[in-house]
Amino acid sequence: RETVELAKGTDARIIDTSTAHRTSNGWAYGFPELSAKHRNDICSAKHVASPGCHASGFISLVYPLISAGVISADCPISCVSLTGYSGGGKKMIADYENSEKNTELDSPKLYALGQTHKHLPEIVAQCGLSQAPIFMPIVDDFYAGMLVSIPLHAANLNGKYTLSELRKIYKSHYSGSKLVRVMDDAPSALFTNTLAGRDDMEIFISG
To answer: Is the Cβ–Cβ distance between 148 and 49 less than 8 Å?
Structure first.
């Protein structure tokens, strides 16, 4: 925030990777794959806010469904998001890589139990949700990777859809994207660190 203030009156273009401006007026949301409007806003914006990690996974799954009318903005949504410890920054990395760490850190840790996770505001804003989702982030003892899953009851969809039809909706939405790929088949199991060290995203539809 201080840097933005100092840059006022200059020609500097600012890309903010913190949470400071992800829901601020006048800031483009840096997820160009979401829509043509997102791409155009980013191209012309002086200020761009980069999406959060958990938020990117959630929004990439829910935004297309709302845009296509598959679910409504008031649909009750819950989300489990698994992540490696590097996403927690320097302190969390140090905690997990300490040879004398607490043995509890050997197991998955469910956190932000008060439903006040810092990514929730941008999730609600970008998806246009009328209520915040139940969000369950889990960090575990591996360095990097993320797996975001959103279970939906068929009764909460605005109509009857087959998996093939839902997959086509996602493929159409992300058509031409080099970084977001909608996969043709869903395996029986998914691992959280499969894409660690890469910048792309894979979307699976199963059920």
So the answer is: no
> 105 burial class (0-12, 13-18, 19+ CB within 10 angstroms)?
middle
Question: Given the DSSP bridges, would you call strands 28-29 and 47-49 parallel, antiparallel or unpaired?
Answer: parallel
Q: Would you say how long the chain is, in residues?
A: 207
d(CA 181, CA 163): 16
* CB-side neighbour CA atoms (13 Å) of 11: 0
> Is residue 147 within 8 Å of residue 190, measured between CB atoms?
yes
- State the chain's mean pLDDT as an integer: 96
Cβ atoms of residues 54 and 148 within 8 Å? yes
Q: Distance (Å, rounded) from C-alpha 95 to C-alpha 185?
A: 38
Distance from C-alpha of 78 to C-alpha of 68, rounded to nearest angstrom: 19
127 is catalytic: no
Q: Rounded to the nearest 5 degrees, what angle is found at the Cα of 56, between the Cα atoms of 15 and 111?
A: 110
Q: Which of these is catalytic: 53, 75, 79, 127? A: 53
What's residue 15's pLDDT?
Answer: 96
Q: In which band, very low, low, confident or very high, does the pLDDT at 52 lie, cut at 50, 70 and 90?
A: very high
Confidence of residue 161 (pLDDT cuts 50, 70, 90): very high
2 — pLDDT class (breaks 50, 70, 90): very high
